[in-house]
From TrEMBL:
Pfam families: DUF223
InterPro entries (UniProt xref): NA-bd_OB-fold (IPR012340), RFA1B/D_OB_1st (IPR003871)
Coiled coil: none
Top-level division of the source organism's lineage: Eukaryota
Taxonomy of the source species: Eukaryota, Viridiplantae, Streptophyta, Embryophyta, Tracheophyta
Protein name from the UniProt record: Replication protein A 70 kDa DNA-binding subunit B/D first OB fold domain-containing protein
Domain Replication protein A 70 kDa DNA-binding subunit B/D first OB fold: residue ranges: 20-108
Length: 218
């Protein structure tokens, strides 16, 4: 029996079935049900291949119990029999034209592949964000020195948020809004650092860009 060819993300085409591919899970989050926020509608994954390309994959609620425990952030897997779809909707994490969907027939197997990078950060310069040269159609990654941290405040909708200010190596500053649970997690993580007087570098993955009176990455 012939072995199915191992593909890369750049070789995927909309409307076909992914035969097999080695990827690293670099990010994972849950998408709540729109009518009942306490229920999970889907699990979203960011997958990275050996060519440093990234694609988003979705596990819908009916398959969460089967695949959730098999996919851990940082680990490498051989995945098979996923559907390749057009990357549409408001939850696009990447600029890739395609995205993946897990099916009942999909297979996941832990493997080792040292050719796949440990992360797939796509850092964007603060100056490009502030001047509106970054598309708002997908998420971005930012990194900078922690310049200022604000208090937790409650919005008109009852959500808690915290604004921090980051500074990049060019001295450009950017305001970033954190939402729960990151609002309370940040001070705890900062207190864990061995040298409290040392400058703190903040890496933010999959952030949404929005433009207000002052430009912020949220």
């Amino acid at each position: 029996m012939a072995i199915a060819p191992r593909l890369t993300i750049n070789q995927l085409q909309q409307g076909v079935r992914l035969t097999q591919m080695n990827v690293r899970v670099i990010h994972r989050w849950t998408r709540p049900n729109l009518q009942d926020k306490s229920k999970i509608e889907a699990i979203e994954l960011l997958l990275l291949d050996a060519e440093n390309e990234i694609i988003q994959a979705t596990i819908w609620k009916q398959l969460i119990s089967y695949f959730s425990s098999k996919l851990a952030v940082g680990s490498v897997y051989n995945i098979r029999n996923l559907t390749v779809q057009k990357n549409t909707g408001l939850d696009k994490a990447t600029p890739n034209s395609c995205r993946l969907k897990f099916e009942f027939s999909s297979k996941v197997c832990a493997t080792t592949d040292t050719t796949i990078p440990l992360n797939g950060y796509r850092f964007v310069k603060f100056e490009e964000i502030i001047n509106g040269r970054v598309p708002t159609t997908h998420y971005i990654d930012v990194v900078g020195k922690l310049y200022e941290i604000g208090p937790i405040v409650e919005t008109t909708k009852g959500h808690k948020c915290r604004t921090i200010k980051l500074e990049d190596i060019e001295g450009c500053q950017l305001c970033c809004t954190l939402r729960a649970p990151h609002t309370s997690q940040l001070p705890a993580r900062l207190s864990e650092q061995p040298n409290p007087e040392q400058s703190k570098i903040i890496v933010m993955q999959c952030v949404e860009t929005k433009k207000y009176e002052a430009t912020t990455a949220e």
